[in-house]
Amino acid sequence: MTRVALIAHDDKKSTMIDLVQEYEAVLSSFDLVATGTTGQRIMAEADLDVERKESGPVGGDTQIGAEVVEGRLDGIVFLQDPMTAQPHEPDIGALMRICNVHDVPLATCRSAGEYVVRGLARDEETRRQSA
C-alpha cells in the first residue's frame, strides 16, 4: 500500500485540510502518516485515518525522516510557509536532504502536493493492474 506523510506549518494547516478534503477519495486508499497537530486536524476535518507521529517541534518530522531512511514512505507533502515560519515549526532542510538521498518525492506547496498525490495514485493503480 502506498504510504504518504503529511506535514504543514501552522499557517498552512488550512491549506492542507483543503488538499486532503479535495483528494479524500484518493488518500483513503493510502496509508497516511502525519505530524501530531496536522494529523489531528486531518482526522477531525476529513474522513481519513492517520498514524500520528509527534508534533513537529518535538521531533515528528525527524520520525518521518526515519521512515524515509527505512524505505517505508513513498512520498511527503510538507506544506511549508516560507514567509512566516515560526522557530518552533519543523525545518524542511534535513527532510529535503534525506528525501533527495533516498529518491522520495517531497512537495512543499499545494500544487506540487497535488502532483505527488495524483502520481502516487497512478503508480498504485498500475501496481494493482500488474498483480
From TrEMBL:
Pfam families in alphabetical order: MGS
Catalysed transformations (reactions): dihydroxyacetone phosphate = methylglyoxal + phosphate
Enzyme nomenclature, EC number: 4.2.3.3
Claim: Lyase is one of the keywords in the record: yes
InterPro entries: Methylgl_synth, Methylglyoxal_synth_AS, MGS-like_dom, MGS-like_dom_sf
Classification lineage: Archaea, Methanobacteriati, Methanobacteriota, Stenosarchaea group, Halobacteria
Active-site residues annotated for this sequence: D61
Protein function: Catalyzes the formation of methylglyoxal from dihydroxyacetone phosphate.
PANTHER family per record: METHYLGLYOXAL SYNTHASE
Family of this protein: Belongs to the methylglyoxal synthase family.
Every MGS-like domain range: 1-131
Keyword Coiled coil (UniProt): no
HAMAP family in UniProt: Methylglyoxal_synth
Protein name per UniProt: Methylglyoxal synthase
One Gene Ontology MF term: methylglyoxal synthase activity
Binding site for substrate: H9, K13, T35, G36, T37, T38, S55, G56, H88
Keywords on record: Lyase, Pyrimidine biosynthesis
